[in-house]
Amino acid sequence: MYEKKVSGVFIAMACCLFSFAFVACDDDDNNGYNGNPLSVTAVRGEYAGATIKAGDADTTVTVSVNADSVKIADFPVDGIVAAVVPSADLSEALSSVGSVPFAAGYDGSVIGTNIVMPMVADSLQFTVTAAGQEHSVKVGFAADASGLYSGSDSTFTFTASAETVIFDGDTVKTFSPIEYVLSPAKKGVAGGDGEADVPSDGEGDVAGE
To answer: The whole model's pTM is what?
Structure first.
């Protein structure tokens, strides 16, 4: 009689454990986690059609991420120009600005199903023409720029704040910081520097590569 009771208890416990494991696996599937280890290389690639928000303005850009840097070939600077050029000369100034490249170094670390990426953004340097005169502009970013790659939905986002502006060698003291936020973006097939294209479903890199 005692043995039958003990056996019944063990059977009940086994059923409970099986049910818990089944539900947990189902939750993982619903969250997009496929059980493969996430590698820091997963973030590398090209994110075309991404959206950067700066205040009320949205700009479509292409973001490239390689082994140690995040790059945008044509970074949106309209808000910065508007902050340092008189409104009467703004149209001329905006039309005079060419493509302004953005680059930021990063150091990625895998934490759970995410890649956390502290970033150090390089200064932007470009020229504008206002009232017929060419002016130099240098923009510095705050030190707390950061990026995040989500392994659960394969998206990349980052934030960087333009903190200082030097106009013709003088610091613009009235400049208010502008925060740039990259909305979660999915990458295409081609890698940003030819390395680590998007793996096919089910392929997992070795963590920490």
So the answer is: 0.74
